[in-house]
């Protein structure tokens, strides 16, 4: 481990040392130069803002230069920020401290600069607004409105006067030049012109004799007048003096056979024209100044914002640069500490300064030298311990028993391979976990973990217990030996649990015992039964006809009773022989639901019992011996029918459920009835041979059921339902391996027993 870490750490130390040896001025020069250029450019930009001529000539160029400089500055800062973020994401040494330093520097610089910027903008806004007096603007607006109102009154008077001329023309029924001239002299107009609807001049009169041709209106005015709308407009004449042009339509009547157009021109006094021009020019100039107020504010605001941006960028760059320089000595020390933590006790840090950091580096180097000396001493002891641990693992791995160890808080410490195979549990996620978690994560280990915890809590020095579990490979009977370890010097103790799978051993012992019992019954009971039956039949046949009627009846009843009891004893011996006989299973895939239907078909003729089926349609196929399972179903259904025989509404419910997938899953078969239930005194020994509460029962039906279930690697349980009746639950694995090796005694057929 140390060999892999030392080159990496040494490489980091060399890189840091080379970095510290570089001159920081080399990295500062480009940034300082760029800062000075931008500062000069901003100064020129500020001067250009105050000079309109220079503003138009230099403002755009200086603005572009500043923007380019800002972009370059932002690029340089972005590179440093990207490097800074990269170090932070990699959790580089000193990156978090550098982040705090940068944050502190930025807060110290940004907050006051932002405050100055805000108040500067407010001062600039109010200062420029104070240049423009609102009262003057209102006075100019009022003067303009007054001049417009006066002009409107004058125009109305002129329109009225023109209308009077039109009426005079209608009354006199004359439209020659002489009459028009007389009307002209009576009015204030400088020119009267009578025209046709197309604009052709009929007569014209003017005060200025030099004007030979009248000032005719344009086509747009003529079109407006022809449509019935009079025209009034203020416009300059050829001399630049303002005139008012009034054009009216004279509709056709008795005087005029066709429409006529009368144009009257009125010249404004020079004083009035001068005043109007003065008011309009003053107002236009003031509006121009108001219009330029916004761009002026924007220019000053932009200049001030660029100064602020330059200040902020400089503060950010200085913060990044300064934090990196301040953190580097701490990073050197942290790299050295990490190297020591990784096992490189020969690490010596470079001495880069003679201040407090230098003193700390010298102390660190002294510490690593002393630790390196102690490491060699510990290494020898550790190697010896590792050899002993390897020897212990080899011993545990070679045992045929499962071995588990727990600490004083019932947490799993070690598990050998045999224990994993017996319990069929993946202990990798359970190492260091409480034993209760073993039952929570593995359903088949719930009872096991609960029982083991109870034994641990009793604090017994040595104990032994037999437990039955149902795994994916079937039923297993485990013999568990537990020992409480002595307390260690550091406090606390532990437990050792040794597990042996005795399923096969118990099965072989039981089969051998019952086979021996069956053989003895065949010799002791079966053989005398045949001579007894033959002797009774011979006596009946020989003496029945020779005796009197009363004696003959007595002999007939007696011999009939002897023969009947002999046959009953033969049936009992045959049933017991069937139980002791364990033939080789003929395993094949079968449909358990179909097998249940076939067996129930034999009982459907019983009208006193109602059968309810809840068979899972997705049950799938089961690997088992069809004949043995058929016998199992017959025994269970027959017991149920006999249990509900006394009930008026006898019911038997059969349910199948599949748990898991092939080949690791299992099928659960339950049979419920509403009979009187199982006597409490028989529950614990219900599946033992010769246990029954029936007057004529042999006590072997449920024993055979348990035997068949165990042959298929399953498990069977029974209890009484709360609402009354018995509940039988069977679990059969979907896939089961071949049974135990054949035994000559166990495989002896019943015919041989009977023949003996």
Automatic annotation (TrEMBL):
Gene Ontology cellular-component annotations: plasma membrane
This protein's UniProt keywords: ATP-binding, Cell membrane, Coiled coil, Kinase, Membrane, Nucleotide-binding, Phosphoprotein, Transferase, Transmembrane, Transmembrane helix, Two-component regulatory system
EC number(s) stated in the UniProt entry for this protein: 2.7.13.3
Coiled-coil segments: 364-391
Signal peptide: none
Catalytic activity: ATP + protein L-histidine = ADP + protein N-phospho-L-histidine
Spans traversing the lipid bilayer: 25-46, 58-77, 97-119, 299-321
Domain called Histidine kinase: residue spans: 520-736
Protein's UniProt keywords contain Kinase: yes
Matches recorded under InterPro entries: HAMP_dom, HATPase_C_sf, HATPase_dom, His_kinase_dom, HisK_dim/P_dom, HisK_dim/P_sf, NtrY, NtrY-like_N
UniProt GO molecular function: ATP binding; phosphorelay sensor kinase activity
Localisation: Cell membrane
Keyword presence, Nucleotide-binding: yes
Residue intervals of the HAMP domain: 324-376
PANTHER family in the record: PEROXIDE STRESS-ACTIVATED HISTIDINE KINASE MAK3 (PTHR43065:SF10), SENSOR HISTIDINE KINASE (PTHR43065)
Protein name in the entry: histidine kinase
Originating organism: hydrothermal vent metagenome
Taxonomic lineage from the root: unclassified sequences, metagenomes, ecological metagenomes
